[in-house]
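name: query_chain
kind: protein
chains: 1
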Amino acid sequence: MTLIAHLLIGLVAVEHLYILWLEMFAWTTRGRKTFRSLAPELFEPTKALAANQGLYNGFLAAGLIWSRLISDPVWSTNVAYFFLSCVIVAGIYGALTAQRSIFFVQALPAILALIFTLLAN
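structure:
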């Protein structure tokens, strides 16, 4: 159980590093292909806003990576709980306000990671 929990946490962290890259550095290129629901003319004017969102995704990834580097098992688990919960809340909010698929792409993997982390402890 613990190995699966750690792998899922790693997967969620990598996903958020990808989102950081996409929103901060590839918004006007790859972002257009990923976020097809946005009008093409919106990408250039929203570049700074997307970069800000990407930075927050980077913080989520950093917190999840940090949770795996903490040697104390109680602290490590608590930090993982916190950052997974942040991802879940952000994913649900994004699904309700922006695009439903955000739930499946962001919230669901974090929910699975949280469940396996809970079961492992």
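note: The mean pLDDT is 95.
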